[in-house]
Amino acid sequence: MGMTTPPRTLAEALRARDDESLAGLLLARPDLLTPVPGDITQLATRAGTRASVVRALEHLDRFALQTAEALAVAPDPAPYEILLGLLTGDGRDDGEHADDAGAAIVAALPGAVATLREQALVWGENDRLRLVRTARELLSPSPQHPSPTGLGPTVAEATAGMSPGRLQEILHAAGLPATHDPVSAVTALAALFTDRTRMGELLDTAPVEALSVLDRLVWGPPYGEVTPNPTPPVKWLRDRGLLLPVSTRTVVLPREAALHLRAGRAHRVPEPQPPAVAAVAERDPQAVDSAAAGQAFLAVSTVEELLKSWNGGGPAILRAGGLSVRELKKTAAALDVSEPVASFWIELAYAAGLLASDGEADERYAPTPAYDDWTELSAQDRWVRLAAAWLAATRTSGLVGGQDAKGRALSTLGPDLDRTAAPEVRHRVLALLAALPPGTAPDPETVLARLRWERPLRGASASAGDTVDLRSRIALWTLNESELLGITGRGALARQTRALLAGEPAEAAALLAPLIPEPLDHVLLQADLTAVAPGPLERPLADMLAALADIESKGGATVYRFTPGSVRRALDAGQSAADLHAFLAAHSRTPVPQPLSYLIDDVARRHGHLRIGAASSYVRCDDEAVLNEILADKRSATLRLRRLAPTALAARTDPASLLDGLREMGYAPAAESADGDVLITRAGARRTPHRAAPVPVPEGPPVPDPTLLGAAVRAIRAGDTAATVVHKDTGPSAPSGSLPRTTSAETLVTVQAAAMTGSAIWIGYVNADGAASQRVIAPVRVEGGYVTAYDHTADEVRTYPLHRITGVAELADDQT
Length: 816
Hints:
Low-confidence stretches: 460-467, 730-736
Radius of gyration: 39 Å
């Protein structure tokens, strides 16, 4: 094919492209690479398959899609001028901004056609634009699948199978000369509908009610139902072919007539330009960064608090997977947040690999060993880890509480929460925010409008009954979650987030560090058995205080309350009364209140007075009166105690239950080992085995890297050379894709001769898996039943067993 010869097929159009253009096609449509096509013909065939075309159409923006839809209802092939006319109209539009809209379409259409051509959805020169057949079928109108443009079939399509007599009646009623040739009759009727003057004269004679019927059908759907005895206006339209029968009860407005009524436009509102993202507020960038930093620190603290509460083993896992509604409510209450927000924090910890199932028989959620490493990081580095995990996660916590396709409830940490579009939507929303001036908070509605323009077909993934498509819902969740996580502050993108989006996590952490308050090494003890932490605390102080007191309120300052139970908890962890007095004296900026000292001493004096062990279990105490008191208490009946000795009781329950029961009765027992030593229970001891963070579910095939793209293009080029090469034995008339066939002796002689002369030959080869391929090789050495050659198809030196070569053929002189 000469360079100036117009392509006759999509394969020829692709063959004429340069390597950079082919690489661009494979990058835009990575599904074409799996597996790598053997040649250009295979690439063109795969690019025309229904699944691949649907995927390509889903990635078009609105104007590129409108251009493809216009080509689907245009003649095939269509000159560029006709396509432009379908988008701008024929000049009869009297709209106020018609000229501006037309100029925008004229400016944007070359880019849209280039996009369609680059993605192999359109091929051919501008005077003969062709939409690939599969795309035309998907976008063309039918009664079952109306065209996105709202246009119906052409006159020729709608009258197919109509009797010649009926055609003559239509011509007569429309004032056209009679013809006995059905083809001429259809042509004359179509010419009438496309003639502005004659069509205008015909419609001037129409009843007002008939024009009202056309107004209802003109922008689609173009189909309407009629009764056996239609009303006079409908009969008038049907008699003149303005409504053509599809069935006994259905009529359709033909495409040519609809285009006249639309002033030649395929779309009511062409959208050549993306809608702008509007701002709702302009804020001080420094205030935005500070607000985001405060929220980022709160996010880190919340995740840490969540996982601390599950240190000893979190909630049980449902049989179907995930967290029960009751456990989610309990977690939300503990974090003092709503249930959807609690679900977000849990899913975030899971996505970051800080939380997983323990894999035990009684399976529960618990922190992973990675959580301990995470807690050792600085606050800013911990936030970067969380933010990066959120950006890449496909799990979508906003779906919790809804139902899957089978009507089953979706639960936190359960299956079916992955949405492959989530990472792409998050990045796109944040990119739109990053394009705004610093400190600008966007209008969410304009963000959604922009996303719908960029991917108008992706809303098809929304489940039935949704009022908002899935991408829009993910976008709204992204805006809310960004504020929770500190990605944005007061609605605007923070400076540290811009660095993170630019692929510079270290820079993001450095920008965040000075905005996070320094941890404190002290608290303020008060006489009402509370302690006030005026800011974040250093980790050892926070951990010890969490064991010694309960958090009463959180905010800018955290209030801790000391209770007998909290003091006992610290004693159970191995602390003595002296240790607790020393700790409080060292870390309080105020004197230790006397009531707090009394509380510690009183609990410590009673702590361990009772000892619990395994008999099944037992209680021992040196004070017989205490044991008598326990036996006399009605609340001990459920523990089923009996006296073994004056200072020992036995129980028919396990030691843990016995400990809990006596504590509920107001005692402070301590567990002991088989040797009689007090057992120390340490918080945070339970961890899952090493677990990797969940891998995001990819959306379609992965995006190929430049190295893979280059290798794929070389392989396709070489395979195309092998498939289209002219060789001496078969000539150019050999069937495409057929393998050469020669005897073993002929194969050996030809290969040896090529090795001696250094010439290239064409071979057919069948590998160990039985896959056949054609290759162009230059033999270097032939010995031991193998041929070593430079393979032009693979662009490398390979060795082939001679018995797997089906045949050989020399290349024609002009191919060498």
